[in-house]
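Inverse folding, one chain.
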């Protein structure tokens, strides 16, 4: 494997790792959505 190919492979792998980590942390830090309670919606039924 040539030196240029090895450098390209390392750069691409590092880019993928950095982007994956960034978006994974972004998902973990996002605020949780409040979901409606399915049981409270059925309270109107007698």
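Residues assigned per position:
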């Amino acid at each position: 494997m040539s030196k240029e190919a090895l450098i390209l492979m390392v750069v691409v792998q590092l880019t993928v790792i950095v982007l994956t980590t960034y978006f994974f942390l972004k998902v973990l830090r996002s605020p949780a959505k409040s979901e409606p309670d399915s049981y409270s919606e059925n309270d109107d039924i007698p």
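The chain is about 60% helix and 0% strand. The chain has a mean pLDDT of 86.
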